[in-house]
Specification:
Elements: H1 8-68, H2 75-87, H3 89-97, H4 100-110, H5 112-115, H6 118-122
Helix pairs in contact: 1-2
Length: 123
Amino acid sequence: MCSQRTSSGCSKKTNKGKRKLMEVVAQLVKALDKFTDKADARLGELTHLMAHEHKLSSKEEAVYETVSGVDDLSLQQQLMASNMIVKNHDVLELFFTLPDEAKGEQVQYCDPIVDLGVLSSAT
C-alpha cells in the first residue's frame, strides 16, 4: 500500500479509493433509509390493525355481557344473539349507541334462531 509521503500518484489513488468508498456508503445509507421508511409504514399499518382488533375484542366482550343479562334467553340463544350482533358491523355499532334498556330489546328483536337461518335450513 502507498504511503502518503511518497509520490503524488499514490496520493491520488488513495483519494480515489476514499471517494469510491464514500459513494458506496452513501448508496447503502439511501437503501437503508428506503427500507426503514417502508418498514415504518408497514409497522404503522400493523399497529392500526392490532388496535382495531383490540377494540373489537372489547366490544365483543361487552356484547356478550349485555346479552347474557337479558331474561328469558337460553345460553344457546345468548351465544347466537351475541354472534349475530358481533358479525354485523352496522348492528354492532347501533348496539353500542343504544341505552342499556334498549340493548335488551335489540337482543330480543334479533330472534337469533330465525336470523341465523337455523329454522330456514331445517325446512
